Amino acid sequence: MKRSILAVLVAIFFTAAFMISCASCSDDVTSSFSNTSQGNRPGGAPGSSSSSITYTAAVEITSADTQSNQTYASTTSDESALIISTSDDVTITNPTVTKSGSSDGGDNCNFYGLNAAVLVKGGSTTTITGGTITSDASGANGIFSYGGNGGSNGASGDGTTVIISGTTIVTTGSGSGGIMTTGGGVTYAYDLDVTSSGGSSAPIRTDRGGGTVVVDGGTYTSNGLGSPAIYSTADITVSNATLVSNLSEGVCIEGKNSITLNNCDLSATNTKRNGNAKFLDTIMIYQSMSGDADSGTSSFTMTDGSLTSNKGHVFHVTNTTAVITLDDVTIINNDANGILLSVCDDGWSGGSNIATVNATDQILEGTILVGSDSILTLNLTGSSTFTGAISGVINDASGSSVSTSIGTVNVTIAAGSTWNLTADTYITTLTNNGTINQGGYTLYVNGVAY
């Protein structure tokens, strides 16, 4: 069907405005599908909302249904292969889903599921078991759970729930995540094999309006720029999974949201900066002020498993307040500079750089960097050991100076925990009920040698 002149003009305006808006750090496209998600932009396109979108699909399910061994395919721009739009339960077993036909729909793809290979909305609980979902187009997320809250941060969804297990998902285009959740949607994923290769295409991906994502088992691999293995503007819990990022951060949390990893193996090789980012890192916690995520306390929790950082800082906190909780995680830092954590200014503004690290039975090694306008609280409990120093002299990935003096640092060492000093260090306060091995170096507390 031909679009009206008005529709064409709106589309042109939307694309132009969207491409002008801004560049982001993580999970943000830098191709012709530019800046479609998690960007440092003032918001979505003018007038864009789920109610103004015309959804089309090769196959649409609008009532309770059970289908097995079916093929769903679309080659048309802005058309899904399968849309499930009902408040009823739907069961899909062993599907073959293919989606091509790129979209210039921008935020309509990222917030509301336009052009997704499979879109679930309307309050349905949809169960998908086995099969394959393949998308080879821009703006074509694999499986999309849209909760209907219109992208309002913190608002409840309409009950839309996707339960997907044993499925292989492959996406190659920009703005095309593997499992995508927005608008208060809910996603439960079990033993998936997800690979994404485009920019802004995290295998586990969320966007405006947030929601809840629970993943257990499986492998999630990202090959694209600005595409961490997990991008969180929601509450995400992942257990017993393998997470690999071959170009970008391992995980990224924006604003008042969380990621919890239980017994996962996460590795990242962040060799190329994207958008505003001035640092390379594996765990990035930030606030872009784009409107995609409320400001507040960001939370990263990891228990057991392994964290391998091949390039850059292991942890990086900027423009937000973050709580990092680690319990018996094997941390492997293969970067020559050995930076464990940086808390400092980056390419964003409007928020503070504040981090609390709670380590329980945890081995920490490397240098911690705290910028002059930043705050760190380090708590060592159980049998934790920190071997390293804390400094305020910080250069970004290009070598430019970010800070020349240390900010506020508060350290608490509980009984049974140890700090092995590796350089002279200045901190603000110290509560020590454990052991400090100075090794010939001096620890200064509020300017006084300890």
Report on the structure:
The chain is mainly beta and 450 residues long. The chain folds into 2 domains: 1-227, no CATH class; 234-450. The strands form 5 sheets. The chain has a 22-stranded parallel sheet that branches. Strands 1-4-7-10-13-15-17-20-23-26-29-32-35 form a 13-stranded parallel sheet. A hairpin with a 2-residue loop joins strand 43 (443-445) and strand 44. It starts with a helix and ends with a strand.
Offer a concise description of the structure.
This protein is mainly β.
Write the layout of secondary structure elements.
Blueprint: H1 5-21, E1 56-61, E2 65-68, E3 71-74, E4 79-85, E5 89-93, E6 96-100, H2 107-112, E7 118-121, E8 125-129, E9 132-136, E10 143-146, E11 161-165, E12 168-171, E13 179-182, E14 185-196, E15 204-206, E16 211-222, E17 230-232, E18 235-239, E19 242-245, E20 251-254, E21 258-262, E22 265-268, E23 281-286, E24 297-303, E25 306-309, E26 313-318, E27 320-327, E28 330-333, E29 339-343, E30 353-360, E31 363-365, E32 367-370, E33 374-381, E34 385-388, E35 390-391, E36 393-395, E37 401-404, E38 408-413, E39 418-421, E40 425-427, E41 429-432, E42 435-437, E43 443-445, E44 448-449
Parallel strand pairs: 1-4, 2-5, 3-6, 4-7, 5-8, 6-9, 7-10, 8-11, 9-12, 10-13, 11-14, 12-14, 13-15, 14-16, 15-17, 16-18, 16-19, 17-20, 18-21, 19-22, 20-23, 21-24, 22-25, 23-26, 24-27, 25-28, 26-29, 27-30, 29-32, 30-33, 31-34, 32-35, 33-38, 34-39, 38-41, 39-42, 40-43
Antiparallel strand pairs: 36-37, 43-44
